[in-house]
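Many introductory courses stop at the sequence. We go one step further.
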Amino acid sequence: MKKVVYSKAANKALTRLPTNERKRVIAKVEQYAADPASLAGNVKKLQGRAGYRLRVGDWRVIFDEDDSVIDIEAIASRGSIY
């Protein structure tokens, strides 16, 4: 399992989400950290910049990863993240 590290902006965005959405986003990030193949259809490499995006309903999680760490950079709604 990879270690998940949230940026200051990502933590702030999480606190502003409704409780049920926050739990859902955190659960999906942890699921991806434990088994990346389980969410392969919801993760895509970003074009025009470094990193990946994880789709969680109408929310998007922008992250970068290496061998042992997933750095969560931003969390926002689908229309405002790109």
